[in-house]
Each structure stands twice: as structure tokens, then as C-alpha cells.
Amino acid sequence: QLKEENATLRSKISKLQILSETQADKMRKLEKKLEENKIKEEKETQDLEAMVQHVEQNLQLMTKRAVKAENSAAKLRQENTLLQVQLRNYKAENEALQLGQAGLAAAKQNAELALQHLLRVTTSSRASIRQLLSGAESLQLVTDLLKSIDRISEVSEDGQ
């Protein structure tokens, strides 16, 4: 009876050893997979940080461009206003000359030159304003992208 009991116990020990080895193998595989996942997650985090840094640099560059475009547009608006004042003055001078019949040709030429200059400045200022609007749209796109990256980060932190 002791031999049978001993044989049963040895069989149980053998089964437990096999089970223990199987579980140890599973444990090693899981540890390896965990380490691989950590490495993969670190790489993804680095990639995401690099992308965020790149987006931030682009945002700074676009901001600089937008500021420059705004300054240019403001300068062109001032010049446009000045030219409009000059145009009014030339028109008034032209009318005065027409009334006085003196120097009519010169006044017309001055008014025509002022008008041509005003038209060139107006065309240029319109292009600058379009460029400024385009820059503002790009800034909005980058802002939306940064917001979505923040949401991804929050979801990633919650998922841990």
C-alpha cells in the first residue's frame, strides 16, 4: 500500500513538475512579450513626441509667416489710405485747375499716375490679404491637429 501511495505521489510530483515547467515557459514568454511591448510603446512615444515637436516647429514658422503677412497687410492698408488721400487731393487740384483753366494737362497726368499707383497697391494688398487668410487657415489646421494629439495622449494615459 505504501508503494502504491508512493507511486501515486511520485506521479503527482511528476505532473506538478511538468505543470510547473509549462507555467515557467508561459511566464518567460509573457515576460518576453511584455518587454517587447514596452520597447514598442517607448518607440511609439518617441515617434509621437518627435511628431509633436515637428508640428510645434511648423506652428511657430506659420505663426511667424502670419505675423509677417499681417504686418505687410497693415503697411499696404496704410499706403492704400495715403494714396487715396493723395488721389482725393489730386482730384481736388484737378477740379481747381479745370475751373482756373491752368495746367489742366499736368493735373490730369498726375491724377492718372496716382490712380495707376493706387490700382497697383490695391491689387498687391488683395494678394497679401489672401495670403494672410491662407496662413490663418493653416494655423487653425495645426491647432486642430494638436488638440487631437492631446486627446490621443489622454486616451493612452487612461488605457494604461
UniProtKB/TrEMBL annotation:
GO terms for cellular component: centrosome; ciliary basal body; early endosome; midbody; recycling endosome. Residues 13-93 form a coiled coil. GO terms for biological process: positive regulation of cilium assembly; positive regulation of protein localization to cilium; regulation of cytokinesis. Keywords: Coiled coil. The keyword Coiled coil applies. The keyword Coiled coil applies. PANTHER family: ENDOSOME-ASSOCIATED TRAFFICKING REGULATOR 1, ENDOSOME-ASSOCIATED-TRAFFICKING REGULATOR 1. Belongs to the ENTR1 family. This is Endosome-associated-trafficking regulator 1.
